[in-house]
Amino acid sequence: MDSAASKISCCERVREFFKSAKFLIYLGHALSTWGDRMWNFAVAVFLVELYGNSLLLTAVYGLVVAGSVLLLGAIIGDWVDKNPRLKVAQTSLVVQNTAVILCGVLLMVVFQFKEQLSTLYSGWLLTTCYIMVITIANIANLASTAMSITIQRDWVVVVAGDDRSKLADMNATVRIIDQLTNILAPMLVGQIMAFGSHFIGCGFISGWNLFSMCLEYFLLWKVYQKTPALAFKAGQKEADDQELKHLNVQKEIGSNENPVEGSQLMNETAEVKKNTSCCYQMTEPIRTFKDGWVAYYNQSIFFAGMSLAFLYMTVLGFDCITTGYAYTQGLNGSVLSLLMGASAISGICGTVAFTWIRKKCGLIRTGFIAGVTQLSCLMLCVASVFAPGSPFDLSVSPFDDVIKHLFGDSGSLRESPTIVPTIEPQIQTNITVFDEAPQVESYMSVSLLFAGVIAARVGLWSFDLTVTQLIQENVIESERGIINGVQNSMNYLLDLLHFIMVILAPNPEAFGLLVIISVSFVAMGHMMYFRFAYKSLRGRLFLFCSPEQKPDPNIPSLPNSV
């Protein structure tokens, strides 16, 4: 009887989990992320194919996306803060998926009728199509940014409630979903385009987004129904109170007979009218941009957020730069694929380690441990610069290749390929598979490089989750959107800077210098976090107490994030 009862109880718990708001968020996030990863992978391939195997369109798209988020991140976050949660989530979902569907249909038309379009109006119609594709794709990315801020930075916090362990588990699960879809989704769409065509690939992605949009819309509504707290929002309440106050002022003016009080109410009305004037409305985005960055600077977690942004200033990730360098060092596509799989496993281990270490040592100390782990592993990358087989040579000018590509041997200016910023530099998986790789004398250097990169993912993802939860816990509800929007802008800014660094020193002989600069920026980032942690814990960063140990009554209590 006890065994049967336990089985029934277990089945009920499983059934309740699949009906819970937490599982519905996981499912919706998996669908959304799967579509995002397929689109981010495919759009770069489509743009290269459209422009005759040139990186020009892809470069323009990458710069437009990065610049848009950099400039509009705070404004998007402010919009998220000032509107109801369900409206924000559903609007972002519909705009994002509709834009991807339209872009997919437009790309199908261009692929099917490219020759005819190129002859109409001296090719301007085809150029217009290119501009429309990049514009619509950029709108989709901005809507995806709003969706990410809404769900991952706000809804997850509300669903978890006051249970910080539950919040940590949800953040870790969301990150695992990110890493798995980042590997599997590009593989699927890549196979479809390889065995089918780009036309079929566009159609598949458009169809997937239509199906996913309907299902995600329903899941968002179910989560909203199961979590009544989502209906109450601090920022929206303040906006409603302000509007109600404005209506009351107008009503009191009409019924007030006292000239003094009436004059005061008239002044308040004049102030309201001033705030709703045309010029005031036109300059509101500029004020929002400024206020967002000022608010970010004034946050208690400012140095923690900056430390995370500094980790984007690195070439030590699985993006097109590092994989291209690996090819010059004799690694073929098959080996790179295996290394990428190992990197994904390492990242998942870091995600799991985050939840365990946080329970034992606290959130802030978890970030410190993760930072030390990442920086220690990256020392292998520094060692690879001076190991046998390294092409590192400071006698070779890093600007030789730039001058040669720009002007050629004849000295005349010519067009050169542009390196494209990635959307998520720390988890980028879009690599080029090479059939044959050049031979090198020793693999010691490149082996140390990738051993350090892969091992450092454990600390990287633990640190990323730490800073994410610190922002979730320490930013007030009415500012979550704008602060996370500015954080995204900072990440994109440092990402762009690291690509500029590569453009200035593109030859393999200078890659060792880029590695040293990258590790230096990672070290500076963790120094910022150390300052934040030391100040937050009042100098007791290295005081690790077991759960059974009673606290010293002479030491004041630690902050909530410990």
Could you walk me through the main structural features you see in this protein, from its secondary elements to its overall organization?
The protein has 562 residues and is an all-alpha fold. It contains 20 helices and no strands. The chain has helices at residues 2-19, 21-50, 56-82, 85-112, 114-119, 124-160, 164-195, 198-226, 234-255, 259-275, 278-282, 284-297, 302-310, 320-328, 333-361, 363-385, 400-407, 444-474, 480-504, 511-536. The longest helix has 37 residues, at 124-160. 41% of the residues are buried. The model is unreliable at 249-254, 411-437 and 545-560 (pLDDT under 50).
List keywords for this structure.
about 550 residues; mainly alpha; about 75% helix; globular; disordered C terminus
